[in-house]
Amino acid sequence: MLEDDILLRSPNPDNWGVFVLSPAVLISGTDRCDNGNYGPGIMTTNASEYKNETLVTSVREVNRFEVVADLSPHCFISFIQITYASSSVGSFTPLPWNQLPEHPSKYWMANSLPEFLRMIWEWWQVSLEPFRNSDNPALVAKAFFENVEIPESVMAEISNLPDMYLSRYIKGDTNARSLSSDYPQLSQATLEWFKQLTLDNPYKTIDERL
Questions:
Q1: Angle between helices 113-126 and 152-159 (to 10 degrees)
Q2: What is the reported pTM?
């Protein structure tokens, strides 16, 4: 389980690690430890314009991976710490957000909870009229907001947060994937709501699903 000082940390472009929205997929025919169970899937498909875009090309680049919320069969929220793996065995350099490569996959990641929630809220909005976006991030975000019980006060707070990547991109910002050093933290009530969401939805093993 992710520690509170990471889960509930304040926005900062120097934060190490990202929160990631992923589709929930049934894993089969692989040597993954979650084979036969639901697990986080990749957001892209072979039909996607982003099919060759990834921030992680090797497990050697992953310092830490944690499922934050198992919301299968709808989606997963995960936390990943990415490193730069040097040629020296066992030598790794942490990569905070402001040093990660500029890949489109950053559009469904964020390095703090308020930025993450606002980011997936924006994807959900473009899945609706008049946009009707059917890209996978929009559909997975739609599944989150339409299947998770979210208090009206939390929804109002998320909708009133400053713009994140998607809104900024739509409005013509040429540096839309950059993060602000003064992005606001969530209220204590919303932080507590999300903390309870993680406690109510831990990763489930196959036995726990039976």
A1: 90
A2: 0.87
